[in-house]
């Protein structure tokens, strides 16, 4: 039961994004690092990797990442009855990050990717995919801003459709609110196909991010810690469902090929300034492994994290 919350209207940052990855604890994963999803061009710059993300080693894709061009993709599954599908949702994120960085002479790689994704005949389990693409203004400061797009199939096997999240509406999926100028102030997405604004975790995430935005002059350190605190929220009463809490403590969700233990494994934050400086932090939460019951799953210390800085190329 993942969640991501973001704003495109912070005075100091073109993009502020915070996300939790909730997953079965025994699903093998590579921590965030620069890489190319197995692609290698000997003797070229790609040896250091153009993509910064973790990797789902079972399926080969990712749930969340950024490339050196500043494109960001995040994926949440739609909660539904499990079925076998021939295509992996995580490959949608990896394809976007690889495609948008390569560009291949395209004037609008985001539009090209959306065209391909919405016209192909592959069928996926239910998903929401939010894509963030940077644009540079024509003014002398060359400030970076972001546009956001949602791709979703509204549930397993559905047709993929796209929706711009830059319009003047607060009623579309994912949950959004508007600032005083009538533009999107913040957005939030989780594991549902609709009515996300009624989920307790989404309500709390939006409220907490708005409180953070009401203090626009926080230092980078204070901002990141406030975002991590947002991602740690649990209700005072033990939640009945994962949708009732932002941090999912270990629970048992049966799944074929898994011991069933499920929890928040990672919290991640991306801050991108208007000048193109990127801060990416991936913090461990509940430690993956082969624990046999919920009480034996250890929680990682806050120092167990990976920090990356780079400038958009």
TrEMBL record:
<dbReference type="GO" id="GO:0005794">
    <property type="term" value="C:Golgi apparatus"/>
</dbReference>
<protein>
    <submittedName>
        <fullName>DUF833-domain-containing protein</fullName>
    </submittedName>
</protein>
<dbReference type="Pfam" id="PF05742">
    <property type="entry name" value="TANGO2"/>
</dbReference>
<dbReference type="InterPro" id="IPR008551">
    <property type="entry name" value="TANGO2"/>
</dbReference>
<dbReference type="GO" id="GO:0009306">
    <property type="term" value="P:protein secretion"/>
</dbReference>
<dbReference type="GO" id="GO:0007030">
    <property type="term" value="P:Golgi organization"/>
</dbReference>
């Amino acid at each position: 039961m993942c969640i991501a919350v973001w704003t495109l209207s912070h005075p100091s940052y073109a993009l502020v994004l915070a996300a939790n990855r909730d997953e079965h604890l025994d699903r093998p994963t590579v921590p965030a690092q620069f890489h190319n999803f197995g692609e290698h061009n000997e003797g070229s710059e790609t040896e250091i990797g153009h993509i910064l993300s973790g990797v789902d080693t079972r399926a080969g894709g990712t749930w969340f990442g950024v490339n050196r061009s500043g494109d960001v993709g995040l994926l949440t599954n739609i909660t539904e009855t499990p079925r076998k599908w021939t295509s992996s949702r995580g490959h949608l994120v990896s394809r976007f990050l690889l495609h948008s960085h390569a560009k291949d002479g395209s004037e609008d790689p985001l539009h090209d990717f959306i065209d391909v994704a919405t016209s192909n005949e592959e069928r996926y389990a239910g998903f929401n995919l939010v894509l963030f693409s940077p644009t540079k203004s024509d003014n002398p400061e060359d400030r970076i801003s972001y546009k956001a797009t949602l791709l979703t199939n509204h549930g397993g096997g559905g047709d993929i459709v796209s929706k711009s999240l830059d319009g003047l509406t607060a009623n579309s999926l994912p949950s959004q609110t508007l600032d005083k100028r009538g533009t999107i102030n913040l957005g939030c997405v989780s594991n549902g196909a609709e009515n996300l604004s009624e989920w307790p975790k989404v309500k709390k995430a939006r409220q907490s991010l708005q409180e953070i935005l009401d203090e626009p002059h926080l230092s980078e350190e204070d901002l990141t810690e406030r975002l991590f605190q947002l991602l740690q929220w649990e209700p005072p009463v033990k939640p009945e469902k994962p949708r009732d809490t932002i941090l999912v403590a270990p629970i048992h969700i049966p799944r074929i090929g898994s011991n069933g233990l499920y929890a928040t494994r990672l919290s991640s934050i991306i801050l991108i300034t208007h000048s193109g400086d990127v801060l990416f932090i991936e913090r461990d939460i509940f430690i993956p492994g082969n624990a046999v019951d919920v009480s034996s799953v250890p929680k990682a210390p806050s120092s167990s994290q990976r920090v990356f800085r780079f400038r958009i190329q």
